[in-house]
Amino acid sequence: xxxxxxxxxxxxxxxxxxxxxxxxxxxxxxxxxxxxxxxxxxxxxxxxxxxxxxxxxxxxxxxxxxxxxxxxxxxxxxxxxxxxxxxxxxxxxxxxxxxxxxxxxxxxxxxxxxxxxxxxxxxxxxxxxxxxxxxxxxxxxxxxxxxxxxxxxxxxxxxxxxxxxxxxxxxxxxxxxxxxxxxxxxxxxxxxxxxxxxxxxxxxxxxxxxxxxxxxxxxxxxxxxxxxxxxxxxxxxxxxxxxxxxxxxxxxxxxxxxxxxxxxxxxxxxxxxxxxxxxxxxxxxxxxxxxxxxxxxxxxxxxxxxxxxxxxxxxxxxxxxxxxxxxxxxxxxxxxxxxxxxxxxxxxxxxxxxxxxxxxxxxxxxxxxxxxxxxxxxxxxxxxxxxxxxxxxxxxxxxxxxxxxxxxxxxxxxxxxxxxxxxxxxxxxxxxxxxxxxxxxxxxxxxxxxxxxxxxxxxxxxxxxxxxxxxxxxxxxxxxxxxxxxxxxxxxxxxxxxxxxxxxxxxxxxxxxxxxxxxxxxxxxxxxxxxxxxxxxxxxxxxxxxxxxxxxxxxxxxxxxxxxxxxxxxxxxxxxxxxxxxxxxxxxxxxxxxxxxxxxxxxxxxxxxxxxxxxxxxxxxxxxxxxxxxxxxxxxxxxxxxxxx
Amino acid sequence: xxxxxxxxxxxxxxxxxxxxxxxxxxxxxxxxxxxxxxxxxxxxxxxxxxxxxxxxxxxxxxxxxxxxxxxxxxxxxxxxxxxxxxxxxxxxxxxxxxxxxxxxxxxxxxxxxxxxxxxxxxxxxxxxxxxxxxxxxxxxxxxxxxxxxxxxxxxxxxxxxxxxxxxxxxxxxxxxxxxxxxxxxxxxxxxxxxxx
Lengths: 645, 196
Fold this sequence. Notes:
The structure holds 2 protein chains of 2 kinds. Chain A is mostly beta strands. Helix content of chain A is 6%, strand content 59%. In chain A, the strands form 7 sheets. Chain A has a 22-stranded antiparallel β-barrel. A 5-stranded mixed sheet of chain A has the order 3-9-10-7-8. Chain B has one domain. The radius of gyration of chain B is 19 Å and the shape is globular. The relative contact order of chain B is 0.20. At the A-B interface, β18, β19, β20 and β21 of A face β2 of B.
């Protein structure tokens, strides 16, 4: 494998000899990316280089280059330290540097997503074709985003129509018999713009093994439709409306299919006051349902519904020097949210539950000198059913030197007990019952981080050290007196590590990005190694782009390297003194893709996934669900480019 | 209601079917039909009397006896017969079943059935001795090596020769109800012939 990799690198390096003045295709290695505006770090627009927290951005171009069908695969491809695995009942489960799905907040255009299964949102709801960029912040961010932002925030920013009209149609299929068809139609006028996205996927069942923890991946199909309409009422007032529908079906058995639906809508108004203030008011609705469809009786019976109504307001006021109005001193941000969270679940025996949450926060983004930026935030959250409140502070300092950005920060994170965790009463097949616990304490984390960023011409090096101290993590423990599992707070956990990233872009069209993360997770109770977080993970990305008379070709190689991890696992639920050591093997996965875009908007993509044909000896739940090397072909057509000059 | 604070489009979904138990359907000629019974409890046998189309139950842990007249009984997914024998047939459904001479009928054997699952997480189950028909009890394969367990219906038509010589075709069609609650057993039966 090393020899093949060396040959590939040598092959790519030869292009520098033929070097042409070709603009780069990987925006991650492009210094122009540093002029990109991001919003997640402060909930206000900021240049990426000015963000007080290290923000990783996956652009629309990166998404196209990666040529992956799902958000999970995109995040795994682009970032080390992220691992999506399967948990019980083949449900997708996230581990992001020691934090699970309930401790990493996923947002779409800043809005939360309703619904969860085994502590993870339905990641398949997130349609990559509608994504403009993904902003990722690692570490706590509850002072801006409230509950769940303990280990990080992944904010998916959707596309907006930026052409008079656009029509993109596409299809992708692989040797695993999974297919995707998608289309989007956009219009932009002086006062309004609209974008409609449609996406359909269909994946056949995949048999992996006869004896592993993971045997057959269920067949899946999904449909996703969304519409976003932006209207500029005046120079100072604009309104954005959106609506979406999602449907997914999982063929779990010969008798029944699992069905998942989501209905979402939102209305957002922006008002500008003078030159220095603006106000955002928004309402968001999100309903996530699960149902069982009986193939014999054709009955589709709903057994879960999570409905969230959220009202939000955000006010920004820019402060300038009274003596010199061209000198910008800082921005004051005030905000508040109110949410009604309704949950109907088959795991409740005492009816449905509703929780009201309210919060208010203030942020002072201060520029005392041209080199120094200090951002301080304080937020108060209240949860009605849990009868809990939480105060989340955060302070970030950033000092700019020529070519160097230094950042240090402290952030508090928390996760309020969910309705499920408080009120569950679920009989597991007459074996035992899982009980909720209304007395749960919120999960709380203290995050410390320091980073060094060096930017010089085509080079960009980022080094970040982080430490998280997490208290009261919520999980289930066996309780003999109840003869069942009870949601409880666990002993403190420490998660520390180092995050290194190097990006280089050569002017000949060749780009390289290498990222590595070391994560050390430690439970402070009994010395037991309960963490299955892999200590060493790395990603490598190399791409080369070249313009031809017939269009533009991009060759991209993406690699993931994951180390083995050894941990202790309980062999008995009821006797916690019984556990055994287990080692999950490390592995690497490589993807090679070739993409050619013709000048009239037709794009052909060919991808070899799992290039070196890796197959696990035994399929654990955290093994890659691969049957070996596969091939995918894609075709997309930007129809509007046929008619443009 | 189309719109409410608690959600929209509730009309997309169906109400769960209400379970009816017993001899829920009878063929026009009176020789067959469909039986559904609640076998969720591990401490109960459900005794089926085909001749009188009657089902009775007896609690194992309370020491309750079987009724005087019964033909076969179901405990969760275990099956036993009243001095009968059973075999697997090549037929696709009970309506096609006829008597075949060459089939090998098997009597019940001494075995044990689970009566207490609550200790499963402590590494053992509670059993009680009981006869079980090894052929009929293969109507459902339950693989407990994964969570949740994998259930596979055999979909076979079984021939059951009762103690009085009556030949009956049985086909188990489901182990759960429309709400997917496990332990609700549905089966078709057809009396092929009765002793002269």
